[in-house]
Amino acid sequence: MTKGVLLFANNNEQVDYVKQAIFCAKRVKKYTNLDVTLVTDSSEQLEQYKFYTKYIDKIITVPKAIESQQKKFFDGESYIYATWKNFSRTTCYDITPYDQTLVIDTDFILGSSSILKCFDTPHDFLINRYAFDLIHRDKRQHSRTLSKQYKYSYVLGYCILFYKNRENKNIV
Asked: Fewer beta carbons below 10 Å: N end or C end of the chain?
């Protein structure tokens, strides 16, 4: 069974996700030594980072998105609105070259090999419910209020592990 990490990096006018993905891949290699595949619509940007081949094993180029959305980004001091092109992430099951895939956000910073424990569980699908801000300003909650009457649970897609099988094809 092959194991690997899938990173999605589609640059916008404000954020160099390709550069961010290379940093993330460097951390993945340092702590897990897993193969890393970069999925991007900005592969031409890789030329300015010639060293990327040390950390990224495969590149999957996807077409530039016709659709996009605006997202509020926070840089630690102020907010900006910029284009967010994350629709290709929904294709992760179909495009992954691995039998066991860990999809992580490019701003997910590994600091140890503990993420490898995901592969040791009896579960073939895992997704995180909580995330912690590095400077402890914010703990992302697993439920939000739609109104005063209703709450709904949701999970955060910062880190997803799935094995290729029939059940997960319907989930991922």
From this structure: N
Residue 84 belongs to domain spanning: 3-128+158-170
Mean of the per-residue pLDDT values for the chain? 83
**pTM summary value:** 0.82
Asked whether the predicted pLDDT for residue 143 surpasses 50, the reply is no
Rounded-to-integer distance, Cα 52 and Cα 46, Å = 7
Going from the C-alpha of 67 to that of each of 63, 84, 86, 87, 88, the distances in angstroms are: 11, 9, 10, 8, 11
Q: Looking at the domain assignment, is residue 60 inside a domain?
A: yes
CA distances from 29 to 102, 107, 110 (A): 13, 15, 10
Handedness of CA 9, 14, 19, 24 (dihedral sign): negative
Cα dihedral: 91, 114, 20, 7 (round 10): -10
Q: Could you give the number of structural domains in the chain?
A: 1
